Amino acid sequence: MQGSLGEDRLPLRPHKRRSRLAPECDKLRRIGERHAQPLHDPRAPTEHREMSGLTKRSVVLAGHATSVALEPEFWAVLDRIAAARSFSKAQLLADIDANRGRRPLASACRLLALSWVAEHGPAA
């Protein structure tokens, strides 16, 4: 019975068409993999370190693991604040978290650091 569903059709197989640009894309990907350097690599070009300029620290707040990414200058001020208050870094971040309201944690950390420097000076 010709014309009934499936009897006169060839079996389907996956289509393997490659675009005209595929060889060039493969070549560029291989070049990129060979020359790529992680952003945290101290041997990486200066532009990459400056662009990525954030340092990430992990902490458990209210029973949830989270991380905060800030510029090293802000971490230095927060470390001084923690030392002045006799807090660990984790205790300071928990205190900031408890008092930040709806503000993002990184923003609350930066604002605390800025107010601390305004009140105590940059070398305090």
Describe the structure in brief:
With 124 residues, this protein is mainly α. 49% of the residues lie in helices and 11% in strands.
Describe it.
The protein has 124 residues and is mainly α. It has two domains: 20-53, no CATH class; 54-120, no CATH class. It has five helices and two strands. Strands 1-2 form a two-stranded antiparallel ribbon. A hairpin with a 2-residue loop joins β1 (55-61) and β2 (64-70). α3 crosses α5 (105-120). The chain is elongated. It starts with 21 loop residues before the first helix and ends with a helix.
Shape: elongated
| Radius of gyration, whole Å | 27 Å
Strand order of the largest sheet: 1-2
What integer is the average pLDDT? 76
Derived structural class: mainly alpha
Number of strands: 2
Protein name: Ribbon-helix-helix domain-containing protein
Pfam family, one: RHH_4
InterPro entries: RHH_dom, RHH_sf
Domain Ribbon-helix-helix: 55-116
Task: Please give a handful of descriptors for the protein shown.
elongated; 2 domains; single chain; 11% strand; 2 strands; 124 residues; two-stranded antiparallel sheet; mainly alpha
